[in-house]
Design goal:
The complex is a heterodimer of chains A (564) and B (155).
Chain A lengths: L3 H28 L29 H5 L22 E2 L2 E2 L4 H13 L5 E4 L2 H4 L23 H7 L9 E5 L4 H15 L7 E4 L4 H7 L6 H18 L3 E2 L1 E4 L1 H5 L4 H21 L4 H4 L3 E7 L3 H23 L4 H4 L3 E5 L11 H15 L4 E3 L12 H16 L14 H23 L3 H6 L2 H18 L28 H15 L2 H16 L6 H9 L4 H12 L10
Parallel strand pairs in A: 1-10, 2-3, 3-4, 4-5, 5-6, 7-8, 8-9, 9-10
Helix pairs in contact in A: 3-5, 6-21, 10-12, 10-16, 12-14, 12-16, 14-15, 20-21, 20-22
Chain B lengths: L1 H4 L14 E5 L8 H12 L3 E4 L6 H10 L4 E6 L4 H14 L6 E6 L3 H9 L4 E3 L5 H16 L8
Parallel strand pairs in B: 1-2, 1-3, 3-4, 4-5
Helix pairs in contact in B: 2-6, 3-4
The chains are: A alpha/beta (564), B alpha/beta (155).
Chain lengths: 564, 155
């Protein structure tokens, strides 16, 4: 293969293009100018009028795309992708009490959902029990309230943990919730080595975008890697982290920033785990990712492909991982909550469909589709059903799942993929110069970049540069509000009573002893924490008690208000 | 009237000092994209804005409003805790003798809750899709009204 024929081809192409521009294009432009001077993606990437092989001059098929299931995995992590197995349809759910959420889970499983995804309420996410003063008004609001193992028993009643895969959106106290899940699995007789699921366990994005941190970065990273180490030994098929760009994107980041900051955080976890003495080729295969799928369809398809390729290159070339499974960027996707509108809420079904389609064409491993009423309240049973049916229509009717990476080779998609990868890599280099992701977060760099993008976007919506149907154009006067889910206001009181009852019947002396054992482990640098947490949970120590001990030893993180 | 408002973001009767706003996140909700965007837009409109950061209690918010001597408190919540926490902020302000502060709110707030919040002393609620210029205009009008002797806080 010499370069000569290619060169001739390129020259011919350039000439042909010049002829097209002069003969065909110029005439039309003279008669009718284009709608805009400049066409940009929602992230601000300028789009060419038309993409041809010229835009892919530096692109090499084997190097940059390759075959699905092989490095650099641009076309997918599996050789057969959805021809072999469809993505996991995983709707995030949880509200009120464990019993109500249990009912919603069973309903979703009956409707053909293939994995569970638990939403916890905010007190649970920041390590407070339901009777803590800071929990007032928040219990059971955005997710289910879990105080002790007893709530976890109710949450999964009648659901065999050996048969479902469960994703838990829990970060700062991830070890505590995983410990409860493990004890529950033991009691059900489910073999731990086959437990399947994910804990989000991604503390770094909490500091920059999601806000449910508890401890400072140092001890938080210890908790994260401690969980990696425990699972490598006892839960080999559990995804130990879901490194999340979704919240970064929702906070206002562009597609490039989403990829860059997510992968920079990923590298920080890998480096921390290696520093803690773990073997990259043992833990890296259990790392998973979580991205958003936003409304700019083509950009999103390219984004997923770019993230997959860049992670493979970083893990192989920079980190030096040897096992191909360590190079694979496996990810969950959620459609963009921030793209939904409170105005004309049925339009959100269309937005979600486009976003879900982008995720599928981008090769996601699992998908949550938002419900159309989510800019108004927590989703109702009806709206959740439409969201799940959206995925089923894509999977079973649209045909897009029947060939691997169907947009691969599109001049535009490949060109955007290359560009997003290159620009994300520029950011990662900048973060390296600042000392890595943890340092960049401590310096406020990542937060500022996200805030600038959020503000720029808001300005563009307000000055009409960016159209949001039903909000700044095509507005209708009346607002028809669909029937919304109401969280029972009695939940908070009931949950407090349940907690008091559990505390009254447990062995207080055993709880005290287990909490003291945990304190000693936490005080000893590098000592394993998971075993002590599991033993505390087993005695029905509360989440707040366990996090309370860790708060005393580790201290609490306070974001500087100046970062506003 | 037009003359009074021509000085962007300033208020009459207090030596033309800029309007001071406390943007606050009550409760445990960590979504502060909206709060930060609004804070920045108010700053761009010439107001002085203090942002509390996350996880504030009604007490700490009211105390910060007193300490910072603000004209306006803007509350943001997307967690559903607004029903309990927004009215508590108003009560805490009144306890501290600052019932005159204009309290407004935003976030994911079902339309059905708005009347109760207004009843409790929250003067306006800006839901998803609100523009920052609407918020700026509302604050200017309300404060101009206050300077003419209208009650914007406590009835």
């Amino acid at each position: 293969m010499t370069d000569r024929p290619r060169e001739t081809e390129r020259t011919g192409l350039r000439e042909a293009r010049r002829r097209w521009e002069e003969k065909t294009l110029a005439k039309v432009l003279a008669r009718r100018p284009e709608r805009r001077e400049r066409f940009e993606t929602v992230s601000g990437i300028e789009l060419e009028r038309v993409y041809t092989p010229t835009e892919l001059a530096g692109h090499d098929y084997l190097r940059d795309e390759g075959f699905p299931g092989e490095y650099p995995f641009t076309r997918g992590v599996q050789p057969t992708m959805y021809r072999g197995r469809l993505w996991t349809m995983r709707q995030y759910a949880g509200f009120g009490s464990a019993a109500e959420t249990n009912q919603r889970f069973r309903y979703l499983l009956e409707q053909g959902q293939t994995g569970l995804s638990v939403a916890f309420d905010l007190p649970t996410q920041v390590g407070y029990d339901s009777d803590h003063p800071m929990a007032e008004g928040e219990v059971g609001r955005v997710g289910v309230a879990i105080d002790t193992l007893a709530d976890m028993e109710t949450l999964f009643e009648g659901i065999p943990l050996s048969e479902v895969s469960t994703s838990m959106t829990i970060n700062a106290p991830a070890s505590v919730l995983l410990a409860m899940y493990i004890v529950l699995a033991e009691r059900q007789g489910a073999p731990l080595e086959r437990l399947s699921g994910t804990v989000q366990n991604d503390i770094l994005k909490e500091y920059v975008a999601r806000g449910t941190y508890i401890f400072p970065p140092g001890p938080s990273m210890r908790l994260v890697t401690d969980l990696f180490a425990y699972c490598a030994e006892h839960l080999p098929t559990w995804n130990t982290i879901s490194i999340s760009g979704y919240h970064i994107r929702e906070a206002g980041a562009t597609a490039v920033q989403e990829v860059a900051f997510t992968l920079a955080n990923g590298l920080a976890y890998v480096e921390a785990a290696v520093a803690a003495g773990l073997d990259v080729d043992v833990f890296a295969r259990r790392l998973s990712f979580f991205l958003g799928s936003h409304i700019d369809f083509l950009e999103e398809v390219a984004k997923f492909r770019a993230a997959r390729r860049l992670w493979a290159r970083l893990m192989r070339e920079r980190v030096g991982a040897k096992d191909p499974r360590s190079w694979m960027f496996r990810f969950h996707t959620q459609t963009a909550g921030s793209s939904l509108t409170a105005q004309q809420p049925l339009n959100n079904i269309v937005r979600t469909t486009l976003e879900a389609l982008a995720a599928v064409l981008g090769g996601t491993q699992s998908l949550h589709t938002n419900s159309f009423d989510e800019a108004l309240a927590l989703p109702s049973e009806e709206s959740v059903m439409v969201a799940l049916r959206t995925q089923q229509i894509l999977a079973h009717e649209s045909g897009v799942a029947d060939s691997v990476d169907p947009l691969g080779g599109s001049y535009l998609i490949e060109s955007l993929t290359d560009r997003i990868e290159a620009e994300a890599m520029d950011y990662i280099r900048e973060i390296d110069r600042l000392g890595g992701a943890v340092a960049a977060i401590e310096k406020g760099f990542i937060q500022r970049e996200i805030e600038d993008s959020a503000y720029r976007h808001q300005k563009m919506v307000e000055d009409g540069t960016r159209t949001v149907v039903g909000v700044n154009e095509f507005v209708t006067g009346e607002h028809k509000v669909p029937p919304l889910l109401e969280v029972d206001p009695e939940v908070e009181e009931r949950q407090r009573r349940n907690l008091a009852a559990v505390k009254a019947r447990r062995d207080a002396e055993a709880v005290r002893a287990r909490l003291e054992a945990l304190r000693r482990a936490a005080q000893e640098p590098g000592a394993p924490l998971m075993p002590a947490i599991i033993e505390a949970v087993r005695e029905y120590a509360t989440l707040g008690e366990i996090c309370g001990v860790l708060r005393e030893v580790f201290g609490e993180y306070r974001a500087s208000a100046a970062q506003g | 009237m037009a003359g009074r408002e021509s000085e962007a973001g300033t208020r009459e009767g207090a030596g033309r000092r800029p309007v001071r706003v406390l943007v606050a996140k009550p409760g445990l909700d960590g979504h502060d994209r909206g709060a930060k965007v609004v804070a920045r837009a108010l700053r761009d409109a010439g107001m002085e804005v203090v942002y509390t950061g996350l996880r504030q209690t009604p007490e700490t918010i009211a105390q910060a409003a007193v300490d910072e001597d603000v004209d306006v408190v803007g509350l943001s919540s997307l967690s559903g805790a607004h029903r309990v926490l927004f009215p508590r902020v108003v009560q805490e302000l009144r306890k501290r003798g600052r019932g005159d502060v204009l309290v407004i709110g935003g976030g994911i707030i079902p339309a059905a809750d708005v009347a109760a919040l207004e009843e409790a002393g929250v003067r306006a609620v800006f839901g998803p899709g609100s523009s920052t210029s609407e918020i700026v205009d509302f604050i200017r009008k309300a404060l101009a009204g206050r300077d003419r002797g209208e009650v914007v806080g406590e009835e």
